[in-house]
Amino acid sequence: MLILVTGATGKVGRSLIARLISDPRFSGARIRALCHNRLLDETDRVEVARGSIADREVAAAALDGVTHVVHLATCKETPDQVMDVTVKGLFWLLEEFRLSPAARQFILIGGDAGVGHFHHRHDGPITEDAPHMAYPGCYALSKVLEEVLLEQFGIQYDTNGCCLRAPWIMEKDDFKYTLSFGDDVFGGPDWKTLVPEADARRYAEDGTVPLLRDAEGQPLKRNFVHVDDLVSAILAAIDNPRAKRQLFNICMDRPVDYGEVAAYLARTRGLRSIDIPSRFHSNWMDNSKAKYFLDWQPDYDLEMLVDSAWQYERSQNDPRTVWYPG
């Protein structure tokens, strides 16, 4: 088994490679880590390939002898790169995969941006049958196009591919910094721009957290997944015959309720919260299909997500770094 991991230096790639190395089920597996801007250390089981998947020759070399692909590489709101990497790059990978005699399975990690996450209203739980609904910007459009490309290769060539659609992926102290009123905020919204400047400075200093409200004035519900749970789903999908040509929502059992987060942080850490109105919409991703087909179950709930983020202590050689906008 030779597993190609694209986007190997990201949070999911690093965690996945570590789990593959340590899991006895994959003791015979070798990993080829495709890196672009950053590098991993090579070991007796991990080899490193360099280049951009937008280049067909890079994609072809990366696929040589590969049995499984876990495609993590993506772009955010970077219009000058997003189509080359997420659309053309995925096309070249799929083309080389379908032509390879060694290829057995292609796993794409998708995103809930493809169904609009909190930008669009959904009348019920978001299942895998929900229509694609990109919100403004190039990132959400790219997540739609990725899923469509993989689906169509399955229709055209009976490619053994599956998509694991994940919402916002958390690790370490990420969730704590999604709620920061400072310059260290992780992702969006950028809370400091939604309140007066002096208030933002005070909130950042005393640890006040935003209680985001949806378009109806209720505490917003938004989907998350911890990287450990996403990696567990990837491992459950590898060589699983029930995963062929399937799409799975991979997320926490319940969306994160900003009101519940504020109440929990007030009770356990004495932190205040401040209401932030929005036009966003609460939603709820349904992960029951992954539980049924993959025999997978997330470990993280709201309290575990909060506690793990607030208790995490970074070492000096692990500074908080945001590698992409958003």
Write the layout of secondary structure elements.
Layout: E1 2-6, H1 11-22, E2 30-35, E3 46-50, H2 56-63, E4 68-71, H3 79-99, E5 105-111, H4 138-157, E6 161-166, E7 168-170, H5 174-177, H6 197-206, E8 209-212, E9 221-222, E10 224-226, H7 227-237, E11 246-249, E12 256-257, H8 258-269, E13 273-276, H9 288-294, H10 302-311
Parallel strand pairs: 1-2, 1-4, 2-3, 4-5, 5-6, 6-11, 7-10, 8-13
Antiparallel strand pairs: 9-12
Could you explain the architecture of this structure?
By secondary structure, the chain is an alpha/beta fold. The chain folds into 2 domains: 2-171 and 223-254 and 283-299, NAD(P)-binding Rossmann-like Domain (Rossmann fold, 3-Layer(aba) Sandwich), CATH 3.40.50.720; 174-220 and 256-276, no CATH class. It is built from 10 helices and 13 strands. Strands 3-2-1-4-5-6-11 form a 7-stranded parallel beta sheet, sandwiched between helices. The chain has a two-stranded parallel ribbon with strand order 7-10. Helix 1 packs across helix 7, helix 2 (56-63) packs across helix 3 and helix 3 packs parallel to helix 4 (138-157). The longest helix has 21 residues, at 79-99. The two termini are 35 Å apart.
